[in-house]
Design brief:
Helix content is about 15%, strand content about 25%. It is α+β, with helices and mostly antiparallel strands and about 80 residues long. The chain has a 4-stranded antiparallel β-sheet with strand order 3-2-1-4, with no helix packed on it. It comes from Escherichia coli.
Length: about 80
């Protein structure tokens, strides 16, 4: 899963815009600050890393290698492979 070591402020992309994680990663859940003018809703796309948010950036913030981040994903995470 997502590394528990991810500090508040670690970015994710929600509908293509960067927003920070707030608080600590707990089990399979993270919270993000969408901001006061958010138009986002449940079911909108969220990218933990990928196009627009390199896995290396998340690795640096969490002090976990990019390889480890990618290989610890489970089948519970929706993945899209792009050539």
């Amino acid at each position: 899963g997502y590394p528990r070591a991810a500090p508040s402020g670690t970015p994710v992309l929600v509908n293509g815009r960067e927003v920070p994680i707030v608080g600590r990663v707990a089990m399979d859940m993270i919270c993000v600050d969408l901001g006061p003018q958010a138009q986002d809703k449940a079911g909108d796309p969220v990218i933990l890393w990928g196009e627009g948010l390199p896995v290396e950036r998340i690795a640096e913030m969490t002090k976990v290698s990019a390889y480890e981040l990618i290989t610890r994903l489970t089948s519970r995470v929706a993945m899209k492979y792009v050539d």
